[in-house]
Design goal:
Layout: E1 4-7, E2 10-14, H1 20-29, E3 33-36, E4 40-44, E5 47-49, H2 51-56, H3 65-83, E6 87-88, E7 97-101, E8 107-111, E9 118-119, E10 124-127, H4 139-142, E11 149-152, H5 155-168, H6 175-180, H7 209-217
Length: 230
Amino acid sequence: MKPVKVKQNYHKFSFKKYDMFWQTITNSLSKSFDKKTNNAIFFHCSRILSIDELLKSEPEKRLKYDVAFHFFYDLGKQLKDLESKDLSVPFFEKSDIIVLDVPNQRYRFLFINKDKLLKIDNDEIKIEIPYQNNGFFSPELEDVSVLPAKISCQSGIFSLASMCASLLNDKKITKEMIEKGFFWKTNTRDEDDHLSPRVLLLDLINGTKLFFALERCLNIHTDDRYYFFI
């Protein structure tokens, strides 16, 4: 479902039917959106990158803060838009996402893997096929051992936050890091045990708006996990 180039700085998505998923694409395109027909969405964009291509263009091979901020903002907003339509994503992969390089604007990020969408029922999604863990699974998805299984619809936002943390910091979480705990915080709280060890990758952005947004989504307790920027 990747878009194709129509002419310079102009692309389109093609589809059989304009449905709720494509509504989220239109909403996410924002100022880049031009028009839609019964089977296509047209938008302005100079080029389209994969996440890996974007990383290769960065001198340190990881996302700068402002790019990571918009990565999580754009995709989290699209995920919440999908959830308002009773649809969710169990986990994210780099291949699910494209990056739009828009003239005179910032990068924009889109989730385009419609085949991964699952229906939400009573705040849960049903897992019916086995998935290979790509390192961005939520704790509840990692725990699935028998199919079919039902897990929280908040699995996707944990996965997205986990990917964002990884893109911000090229380090791997080690046993030593976990044993040290949140050594980079000025005040270590006893209640930090509700957080995934993946928060340890956020030391470079400690105290920022993005840090707290990601921390909220990396809660191992699904009822306390939510997407919110302050």
